[in-house]
Write a structure and sequence with these properties.
This protein is an all-alpha fold. The protein has a single domain, classed as MFS general substrate transporter like domains (Growth Hormone, Chain: A). Helix content is 81%, strand content 0%. The protein contains 16 helices and no strands. Helix 6 packs across helix 14 and helix 10 packs parallel to helix 12. The longest helix is centred in the middle third of the chain and has 32 residues. The radius of gyration is 20 Å and the shape is globular.
């Protein structure tokens, strides 16, 4: 096993590069406006960015399917092949969008190909990396998911510039081809973590929320656990506000705050920057304070963030709105950085691939519902304020569920 002590770092680096490229899934709010204009001109039917929200919703709601399937497939075929195939499918999804002549083509390319491929690649890279670092679960999960978040910092201005220079359809094709090439190369550096791996000199110990420090639960045992449904509901509640802003930050900034398109696009990068930093920071802090204690704090900050967004939008206060954007990015990043390690801590490392894929249903539901809330609220009221109020209520429910989880875990111990 000692040979893996150094190799695990190479796996971590390769996983980060791969996740950086599949993170382009979150640049949809930059693509949506220009693509709506392109399709309107091509088909003679007036479309706006919000009309294409279904594409992003589908792309973010189907990932759990391949994360679960990928867990089973990886056990048979290995991590390398799954990442290779997933990377090719992801890039092809973008290429298909480049040839799309209607919303249906975008749903197939961005929604299905890219969304399903993301589940394959993200699931394998995150879960395999966390298994390689049983001594630093929060850190490893945070760094691996942070690369996914960093992607949303770097890509929006790059994509915006490419669209302005080459057009939206050409940009889709270029990004897709680049993604295929990079992930194919990086996939050969991925090594599957052997069962029972532990770095030299490290022995596991129970933590404040670990109900069983040694038992590895399969997916059937996990879904019969009273903790599973609370955890999945908490993930949904924590991800909802982040998915609302990532999917619609640009149109919200333009329509509610009056920002210019370039600055509104920058909002996506601001969210993504703090999202990426928080994935590392949140994971690291959770290693020290415990997963559930950290999540309790994050829910409180999330409520504060949404209050800032509500009053910032109501009063046209740019500083308050930006603070809300930053805090939303931080909270979203914390959840995504903490949850891989949280899941493994509660249900064991052996079946992490399948178990986290099932847990990811909570995130997928948030990805499906959040853009719908934004579109529905804006369509019926002409503003986004009610969407923030809904998200505040959901975050408050998440906080209560976290308290319940902590009490139940303490009792179980």
């Amino acid at each position: 096993m000692e040979k893996y002590d150094k190799r695990r770092w190479l796996v971590l680096i390769a996983s980060c590069v791969i996740n950086f490229f599949i993170g382009t899934l979150y640049v949809w709010s930059v693509f949506s406006g220009p693509m709506a204009e392109y399709l309107s001109a091509k088909n003679g039917v007036e479309l706006i960015a919000e009309d294409l929200g279904i594409v992003f919703s589908i792309g973010n709601s189907v990932g759990f399917i391949t994360m679960i399937a990928g867990g089973f497939i990886t056990a048979k075929l290995g991590s390398k092949l799954v990442v290779l195939v997933g990377g090719i499918l992801f890039g092809l999804g973008f290429v298909i969008c480049g040839f799309a002549s209607g919303v249906g083509g975008l749903i197939v390319g961005y929604g299905l190909f890219t969304g399903l491929a993301m589940g394959l690649v993200y699931g394998v890279t995150i879960n395999n990396t966390v298994k390689f670092f049983p001594d630093k679960k929060g850190f490893a999960g945070g760094v691996a998911t942070a690369a996914y978040g960093v992607s949303s910092v770097v890509w929006p201005p790059v994509v915006q510039s490419m669209i302005e220079g080459s057009g939206v359809t050409s940009t889709f094709k270029i990004v897709g081809i680049m993604t295929i090439v990079v992930i194919v190369v990086m996939s050969f550096l991925i090594t599957k973590c052997p069962d029972g791996y532990a770095p030299k000199g490290w022995t596991p110990k129970a933590t404040a929320t670990t109900v069983s420090a040694t038992e590895n639960k399969n997916w059937k045992q996990m879904i019969t656990s009273k903790f599973f449904y609370i955890m999945m509901a908490m993930l949904f509640a924590g991800a909802l506000s982040g998915m609302m802003m990532i999917s619609s930050a640009k149109p919200i900034g333009m329509n509610m705050m009056g920002f210019e398109p370039a600055f509104a696009a920058l909002l996506v990068s601001i969210i993504a920057l703090f999202n990426a930093l928080a994935r590392i920071g949140g994971g690291f802090v959770s290693d020290k304070l415990g997963r559930i204690n950290t999540l309790l704090i994050v829910f409180i900050v999330s409520i504060v963030a949404l209050v800032c967004l509500f009053f910032g939008g109501q009063n046209m206060s740019v500083p308050l709105f930006i603070i809300g954007i930053i805090l939303t990015g931080i909270c979203f990043g914390c959840f995504m950085g903490i949850y891989p390690g949280f899941t493994m801590e509660m249900f064991g490392a052996k079946n992490q691939g399948v178990n986290y894929g099932i847990m990811f249903i909570g995130f997928s539901l948030a990805g499906l519902i959040a853009p719908m809330i934004v579109k529905s609220v804006y369509g019926s009221t002409g503003t986004y304020l009610m969407a923030f109020l809904i998200a505040i209520i959901v975050a408050a429910v998440g906080f209560v569920l976290s308290l319940l989880f902590k009490a139940m875990a303490k009792k179980a111990k």
